[in-house]
């Protein structure tokens, strides 16, 4: 049913927690593809043994650093009916895949997105300490058109039917937002369907903490630049979307020529 692609980079403790959440799933109809771009530590053999016959652990020794190239390598060997992406520091609630499978089996949607939970934690201790302030995030108001303006759908909250991803790959040259670019490419000519479930848990530590290791935290200066790049690559599907893009950029002091965006 599912192939779950996990790019990882030198976060063995967090990766083990992610794998534990997969081992605990009430639905085990999945295969895992883990792509590491570093040989700095041994694979988590104890956890992988519990997924015997249902995992690939790939060491990527070439290509552009970062998760985009690792996700592409995972896509090259993925064979599930649906493709899921999961970051190496995030987890699933135990019934997440069971609920997702039941919904996808109804009408086999091309692109299904869903809500999620945010869990704050302190990563200066080992293992990370969960902090108060977790919350459920609904993105039910996200529409096909709104994704062309700004993306509020986390990469781990989309189920891609495998045939939708023929020819779609992550752009390895993007500084940030490669997941947004990937989603827009997959959306061309497709339908985007929301599912009311929140079984993905996105774990966050302080944005400025070195142990957080999320690239986007330190690239705020590139947000407008990359958004303009994506606007050019993926023109708005209608005039209303283009006007909304124009208004958003105007609030940042940037004038858009609607004929190009």
From TrEMBL:
Which InterPro entries has this protein been placed in?
Glyco_trans_2-like (IPR001173), Glycosyltransf_2 (IPR050834), Nucleotide-diphossugar_trans (IPR029044)
Q: Which UniProt keywords apply?
A: Transferase
Q: Which GO terms describe its molecular function?
A: transferase activity
| Gene3D superfamilies from the UniProt entry | Spore Coat Polysaccharide Biosynthesis Protein SpsA, Chain A
Q: Where is the Glycosyltransferase 2-like domain?
A: 3-165
Q: Which Pfam family, any one of them, does this sequence belong to? A: Glycos_transf_2
Q: Which domain of life is it from?
A: Bacteria
List, alphabetically, the SUPFAM superfamilies matched: Nucleotide-diphospho-sugar transferases
This protein is called Glycosyltransferase
The organism's taxonomic lineage, starting at the top: Bacteria, Pseudomonadati, Pseudomonadota, Betaproteobacteria, Burkholderiales
């Amino acid at each position: 049913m599912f192939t779950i692609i996990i790019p990882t980079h030198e976060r063995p403790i967090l990766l083990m927690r992610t794998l534990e959440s997969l081992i605990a799933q009430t639905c085990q109809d999945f295969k895992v593809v883990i792509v590491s771009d570093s040989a700095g530590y041994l694979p988590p053999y104890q956890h992988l043994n519990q997924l015997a016959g249902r995992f690939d652990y790939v060491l990527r020794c070439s290509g552009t650093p970062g998760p985009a190239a690792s996700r592409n390598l995972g896509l090259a060997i993925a064979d599930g009916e649906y493709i899921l992406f999961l970051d190496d520091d995030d987890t699933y609630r135990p019934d997440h895949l069971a609920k997702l499978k039941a919904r996808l089996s109804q009408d086999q949607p091309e692109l299904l997105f869903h809500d999620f939970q945010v869990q704050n934690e302190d990563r200066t201790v080992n293992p990370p300490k969960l902090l108060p302030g977790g919350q459920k995030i609904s993105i039910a108001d996200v529409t096909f058109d709104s994704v062309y303006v700004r993306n509020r759908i986390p990469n781990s909250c989309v189920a891609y039917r495998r045939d939708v991803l023929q020819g779609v790959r992550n752009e390895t040259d993007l500084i940030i937002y490669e997941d947004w670019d990937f989603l827009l490419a997959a959306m061309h000519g497709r339908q985007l369907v929301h599912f009311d479930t929140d079984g993905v848990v996105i774990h966050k530590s302080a944005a400025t903490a070195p142990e957080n290791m999320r690239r986007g935290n330190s690239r705020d200066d590139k947000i407008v630049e990359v958004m303009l790049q994506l606007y050019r690559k993926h023109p708005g599907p209608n005039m209303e979307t283009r006007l909304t893009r124009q208004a958003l950029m105007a609030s940042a002091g940037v004038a858009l020529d609607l004929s190009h965006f």
